[in-house]
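Entry for the shared binder. Reason: the reviewer on the internal report wants the predicted structure included alongside the sequence.
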Amino acid sequence: MEYFYELYSGLPRGGPGDNQSTRKAFSYLKDLPVEPSILDIGCGPGMQTLELARITRERIVALDNYKPFLDVLMKNAEKEGLDKRIFPKNQSMLEMNFKDNSFDIIWSEGALYQMGFQNGLKKYYQLLKNGGFLAVTEGVLITSNPPAEVKKFWEDYPDVKDVKANISLIRNENYHLLAHFTLPKLAWIDNYYSPLEKRIVELKKKYTNNKTAVQVLENSEKEIETYKANSDDIGYEFFVMQKEQK
């Protein structure tokens, strides 16, 4: 994992995303309390955390299991004068110890796969207050019968589904789906893969004779190549929902 974390250190994002999509998703949250409590799970270096802080002007708990990402977030937050409203928590999402019914909004861009989509929906339901909101991005199959190469793209996440199947899970877990939309391709290429490609070039020079490190880098290169060749079949979907009473 050390090479994986080194690869992602210094990148603006740990996965596909863009500020416009964050704002678009937030626009579907209506009738919020005056001071909503917000939890950003798997925040990474916190690009979306900062955007949420700009949008809401409220307190945000930013949770991630890798402290250097939180350090980057807080350094950038301080530059914008947002550090007083962002509270970093260095903890795995698998070990969260928040009380049930604690948050008005839970946000998670590109991180829910670590729990599995349905397991994440169940856990987040417990943490949300009644009527609270959940906004997540999830890897999806855009087409119903994708080529084998696309299925291999998600081999580390074998539970990947199409959008329709994820919507069914959302409703089965007692959420009201408010909106969903596919992230634009620029969220992958411009904001994620382009910086990642530059980082790979840097680290390949550093680790020329390190087979383990080179393998990590080549795996990332293959991922990028596969996405570019199959971007009409692979995507991230933003799901925005509200907790319903059981």
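Summary line for the report: The two ends are 40 Å apart (CA to CA).
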